[in-house]
Amino acid sequence: MARDAIIARNLTYWYGRLVAVDHISFSVAEGEIFGFLGPNGAGKSTTVKMLTGQLKPKSGHAVLLGLDVARYTNEVQGKIGVCFEESNLYQQMSAVENLELFARLFGTRSFNPYPLLKRVGLGGREKDRVETYSKGMKQRLMVARALVNRPRILFLDEPTAGLDPTSAKSIRNLIRTVRKQGTTVLLTTHDMMEADELADRVAFINHGKIVALDTPHKLKQQYGRRALRVEVASQSGALENREVALDTSETPEAIHELFSTENVVTVHSEEATLGDIFIEITGRGLIGPKPATAKPAKRRRRR
User: Is 15 left (phi over 0), alpha (psi -120 to 50) or beta?
Assistant: First the structure.
């Protein structure tokens, strides 16, 4: 049985009176791709900052690879890789120089950047300045930089945001490859199709609380609604849509009647998406404004 690479125990953080993360707990197994999903302002970034040692929890604990992050921050950070949504590469330097710099910061000896750059699809452009790269190339370089220290846990924040389909597919394939090599991946994204495609499990966070956590398949079974979407031709030749709910006692009769009485053109099965499920659970979409109000944080009195 795989051990837990990430353990969050009652993680809590507030900014003044705004509770950004409200006593959340979850774990991520070694070698798992874990999708961490929620709208803007839900608490995703604050949670990741606590897990990676950039913020110290107000209460609760983050444990990575058996180490308390707040107590062993430097040791933990040497074992993880982080790729942010915003590019923070050195634009005047080449890809090789960017990777070599970070290898020195990690104390990685005998580092050869060329195989890693080839692996992310930047072979042949290794010595070009980063300022000449497209957005997709920069994103792939950032992922490569996050892999310089051969991390056991990789944190990816919106790794395919704004990329063309080809570049996005390249990044997703790289994520799969990294996981096959045993690396644990925590992925934050607004792209529900991406999360459904990549993640072994997903957690929905809303207003600082985890409101659902399971495999995409089980969430769809629990919250989704399966149906047949049927396109029929009317007597005038116009196309019209019909829907037949599945998994009910009336389903067989409804399908029989539809095919007996209508001119059926196409039939498609339909299930809820992760985005649909999130809206059903929370009442809001995955991209939205920060919550307008928040309860005050409870503070302990000093004795």
Answer: beta
